[in-house]
Amino acid sequence: EGGGPGRRGERGEEAPGEHGPGAAFHMFVLMEDLLDKLKLLSYEEEALRRHNMRPLSRHYFALPTNPGEQFFMFCTLAAWLITKAGRLFEQPQEYDDPNAVISNVLSELRSF
């Protein structure tokens, strides 16, 4: 049959609904895996206590609840992980320019 746009396999794209019934929950599984890995690295003791922050919920980054707070938490964790990997990295502040913060994080990650 004729293949219109959106057919599975064209340019690596899939039509909506072709991911299977569990695709909607994939982000939640990824977040739980991330949280398990952060706990193995003792993020609660090393990163959160230092900045007086509360622990992440199992679905913290999977649901957009407070983008500003979530972005700052992401930047805080990214800076902590970069530092834990042995690099000097300045902890971003809550009111820093988001574009500059992300640029610094990406630049540091590229240097790895």
Brief overview:
This is Intraflagellar transport protein 57 homolog. The protein is mostly helical and 112 residues long.
Mean pLDDT: 84
**Residue runs with pLDDT of under 50 for 5 or more positions:** 6-13
How many beta-strand runs?
A: 0
Share of β-strand residues: under 5%
Write the H/E string, N to C. HHHH
Kindly name the structural category: mainly alpha
Characterize the largest beta sheet: strand count, sense, and whether it forms a barrel: none
Number of helices: 4
The coarse silhouette is globular
Spatial separation of the terminal alpha carbons:
48 Å
Radius of gyration: 18 Å
Provide the helix percentage: 40-55%
Provide the descriptors you would attach to this structure in a database record.
112 residues, mainly alpha, 4 helices, 47% helix, globular, cell projection
Structural account:
The protein is an all-alpha fold and 112 residues long. The protein has a domain at 66-111. It contains four helices and no strands. The chain has helices at residues 26-40, 43-48, 67-84, 98-111. α3 runs parallel beside α4 (98-111). The N and C termini lie far apart (48 Å).
